[in-house]
Amino acid sequence: MKCKYCEDRSVVIRDEEALCKRHYYSFYSEKLNITELEEVPKIKEEVILNKEYTKFMNTFDFYNDSINNQNKLKKTLRKFNIAVNLIKLKNPIYYMIFLLFFTIKMSGQITYEIYQDGVYKTSTTNTNYTVTGLQPATTYSFHIISVDAAGNKSPASNIITVTTLPKPVVYCSSYGKSTKECINKVQIGTINNYSGNNGGYGNFTTIKTDLLRNSTNTISISPYWSSSTLSETYRVWIDFNKDGDFLDNGEQLLNINKSKLTVVNGSIKIPSLAPIGETRMRISMKYNTFASSCETLFNGEVEDYTVNIK
Ligand SMILES: [Ca+2]
Ligand SMILES: [Ca+2]
Ligand SMILES: [Ca+2]
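Above are the sequence and the calcium ion SMILES. Below is the predicted complex in C-alpha cell form.
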C-alpha cells in the first residue's frame, strides 16, 4: 500500500508531509479502531496494546521510492519506512526485561541488533527479546538497529531506559518454643517493644528505628521465664547487605552466652559503610546454646524488627 494522498497529484497539498502523516495515522486508526490519534508516541502505544498489529505491520509497506521529486516527502516516508521502534512491553523484574520492537518495512527478513548501554549484545529475527542476567535496581538503556536481507542497516532506534526492580528479599523463618522462656522486651534506638510471649516468633518488622552509620547503639533484651530462671543465649543479626540472609561478614552483631540476667545489654556497632536504608534485624534468645539465624523449634524465641541505616 502506498500513501494515496501523496500520489494524488490532482490534489493541491500545501503541507504534504503533514498530510501524509495524517494519512498514516488514519491508516492506523482504521485498522485499530482508534478514533483520534495525534501523536506518534500515542499511536505506538495503541499499536503495542493491540495484538493484531503484527499482522498489520506485515501487510503494509510505506516505502515508495517513486516519489523522488518530493524531497521533503521522501524524507518523511523514509523515516517511516525505516523507523525502528523499541518498546518496553512489560514491567521489568529484578533480573529480566522484556523488549518489543518493530519496523515499518517488512519486505524480506529483518534482523534486529540489540544494544545494551550502547554495546552490541545480540541479534534476533524475532520482534521481541527477553534480556536476562541483569542486576537488580539498576538502570539500563537499550536500542536496536534493524538490518534487512541485503545487510542495509537502519539508523539507531529510540533509546529506552529501564530500571530493574529491587530483588525481592525473603528471609528464612526462625522460631522457637516459648513454653518456658521468651523475649519479653526489646529496646534499641527508638524501638521499645514490650512483646511478651509471641509463641516462639514475633514479626515486628513494622516497628523501626533509625541507626546511624558508624554509631554504637545499646540494645537491651529482657527475657521472661514462666517458671524457674534459665540460662539463655542471645544473638542479634542485621542483614546489612539486604540479600535476605544474616550470614555475611559482620552481620552477626551480638553473642551473649548463658545469661540468667533479667536484662541483658549489648552494643550494636553499625559499620561506616553499611548500605543506607531499611533492612531487617533478627534477635534470637535460646536456652543454653546459641541459635543460628534460621534455626527452628528450639526452646526460646525469635523477634524480627526493621532498622533504617542512615
Ligand atoms: Ca516476645
Ligand atoms: Ca546478608
Ligand atoms: Ca549473604
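The chain has three domains: 11-101, 111-163, 175-309.
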